[in-house]
């Protein structure tokens, strides 16, 4: 099996995943992440802060070297919402090329959605029966993708509902206030597509905020549980939440907005619960590199 790597440049965190693909499943070999917070302030100013650009370029260079040391035949660098939306996002691509000689691929929201769907469905494996709605909640944007394992994505939309962005726009207090989160919930509902989903559709949640929820609770993530979870995590400041549950301060700060967003999405589509799966954009990109999907879809 050939070994590949994906460097995922997100709005909050830069991730490295080195892995192999066997039988349509991603086998992780090595992974790393560093919080660079590229999206910090982008919703307000439209630009990535210079110090964030410098840090991100250095991290990407480090990850490219780590990937080579772990036997990856090539590294695919994917930039998503923060870089896509920022006026000066192109500067990061220039710095990465200078440092590594590699090209950073700025993928569209639709490409991000398709790769995230394939990664999520692959991670769900044989436990997934029937069609699925994948909710990939990142820092700058949220991808909603409906489809099934056989035919792939059938409907998809990319929305500016990432947890960093919504926290910056709606949440002023720490902990978040009830009125702030109610306003956010109404905002999310107003941006939902008018899709009609059958009762047997499974909702799969992916992304850092979804995984953080699993650190706090192992209960079934029903609408009721998520509503109770928001109340629990807004009783204390984010620093306390981070310390008690092993979260980064950045993740703890945006978690109330993230849980509120997931809850609003479930209620909009009339789905009673969601499942968190540990697969998404990076896994989908590795599948593409291994030939499961056309690599040109992510390299163009």
Spell out the blueprint of helices and strands:
Layout: E1 4-9, E2 13-22, E3 25-35, H1 42-45, H2 50-69, E4 75-79, H3 81-85, H4 90-100, E5 104-106, H5 109-124, E6 132-137, E7 142-148, E8 152-159, H6 163-170, H7 178-191, E9 202-206, H8 208-216, E10 221-222, H9 223-233, H10 238-245, H11 249-269, E11 273-276, H12 281-289, H13 296-299
Parallel strand pairs: 1-4, 4-5, 6-9, 9-11
Antiparallel strand pairs: 1-2, 2-3, 6-7, 7-8, 10-11
Helix pairs in contact: 2-4, 5-12, 6-11, 7-11, 8-11, 9-11, 10-11
Structural features, described:
By secondary structure, the protein is α/β, with parallel strands linked by helices. It folds into two domains: 106 residues, Nucleotidyltransferase, domain 5 (2-Layer Sandwich); 160 residues, Nucleotidyltransferase, domain 5 (2-Layer Sandwich). The protein has 13 helices and eleven strands. It has a six-stranded mixed β-sheet with strand order 8-7-6-9-11-10, with helices on both faces. It is globular. 50% of the residues are buried. About 2% of the residues have low confidence.
Round the mean pLDDT to the nearest integer and report it.
Answer: 91
CATH topology of the largest domain: Nucleotidyltransferase, domain 5
User: Strands of the biggest beta sheet: in what spatial order?
Assistant: 8-7-6-9-11-10
Instruction: Give the quaternary arrangement of the chains.
Output: single chain
The dominant shape is: globular
- How much of the polypeptide forms β-strand, as a percent range? 15-25%
Question: Class by helix and strand content?
Answer: alpha/beta
CATH class of the largest domain: Alpha Beta
Number of helices: 13
